[in-house]
Amino acid sequence: MTDAFREAVALAGTGQGGWLSLHTADPGTAGTVGEVTGGTPAYARKQTTWTGGAADGSVVGSEVAFDVPAGTFTHIACWTAATGGTFLWSQPISGITFPGQGVLKITPTAMVPQGA
């Protein structure tokens, strides 16, 4: 698979949606497990803007800032809408723990690996 083809697939995939959710566990195949709730200000999905780059099969999103309650956050997921919508994919992040209310900033990357 060429890098140019991988880039085209990554761009097509990210073109499906740009709403990110944050999770406390693997979201599963439907994206419904462990989405964060609560906090003041309250947690909500955030929209990223995807940008292609160096024809390497990866597309980088703009940084998003999630308001989060205390907890450990392990995954992000991508959706077609701010609420509800269609679950597209998820990926693990390093388990990040907040002892109290805070802001977690994420710059997402969607990647089509070699041989995919």
Task: Tell me about this structure.
The protein is mainly beta. It has one domain (3-111). Helices cover 10% and strands 41% of the residues. The protein has one helix at 3-14; strands at 19-23, 46-47, 50-51, 58-61, 64-68, 71-79, 87-98, 102-106, 109-111. Strands 2-1-6-7 form a 4-stranded antiparallel β-sheet, with no helix packed on it. Strands 3-4-9 form a 3-stranded antiparallel β-sheet, with helices on one face. It is elongated, with a radius of gyration of 14 Å.
Compact overview of the structure:
This protein is mostly beta strands and 116 residues long. It has one helix spanning 3-14; strands spanning 19-23, 46-47, 50-51, 58-61, 64-68, 71-79, 87-98, 102-106, 109-111.
